[in-house]
Amino acid sequence: MPGSILSLLSSSSASAPGHVFQFSGTPNLYSYMPDIHMAFPKKMSFMQRLQNTMFGAFNHMALTWWVYPAQDQLMREFAGTVTPPLPYIKTLLVNISATLVYSDPMIEYPRPQTANLVQVGGMHLKTGQLPKDLADLMSSTVSPRGVILVSFGSMVSPSKMSSSLRDSLVRAFASTELTVLWRWEGKTIENLPSNIHLRKWVPQQDVLGECALRRKTC
């Protein structure tokens, strides 16, 4: 912030949404830059450009009128009384020194970008040795056509899905000739096809580094 020694560093766990570009000073023109939430192609039609622009305007209003005031209130509740007083949260955001964005220019649409927006996609990745049971499962002998990893991350519990959705996934996985490695922390699913293997925990980074992996479903 002007006149302050405070430096702020932020991060985005996915490709940066529009407001992150705004705070970094990076141009974010909805007329030809698809928003991360819209899943539009690089070359948008007129209607897609219109929807993209309308979404950007609505998102800006929602952040300004609802999100930032709520976040500012939470910040003050947890920070308590400090000296000097904390500025409004949006003032902090527009004075962020740098933002680490989990993306990679090789898979991003081309767009202008300022130096304080740093793409760090893949910086946490590492590979190690698989446990023997998984190494055997992913071997060319057991899985000659390759492996599909199915994981819904740490925020979604697959075992809590409805039985109809679960059965639909099982039928879909059974229709492929690939081996399916499914992270499933609930009770064992009965009568599973032979190509589906359940594990309560999967060393995801090590599995992703295997050449046998053909798909990852989140």
In short:
This is 2-hydroxyacylsphingosine 1-beta-galactosyltransferase. Helix content is 32%, strand content 13%. By secondary structure, it is of the alpha/beta class.
Please give a structural write-up.
- By secondary structure, the chain is an alpha/beta fold.
- The chain has a 4-stranded parallel β-sheet, covered by helices on one side. It has a 3-stranded parallel β-sheet with strand order 1-2-3, covered by helices on one side.
- Strand 4, helix 5 and strand 5 form a beta-alpha-beta unit.
- It starts with 8 loop residues before the first strand and ends with a strand.
SSE layout and pairing:
Blueprint: E1 9-12, H1 18-24, H2 46-79, H3 89-93, E2 98-101, E3 117-119, H4 132-137, E4 147-150, H5 163-174, E5 179-183, E6 196-199, H6 204-208, E7 213-217
Parallel strand pairs: 1-2, 2-3, 4-5, 4-7, 5-6
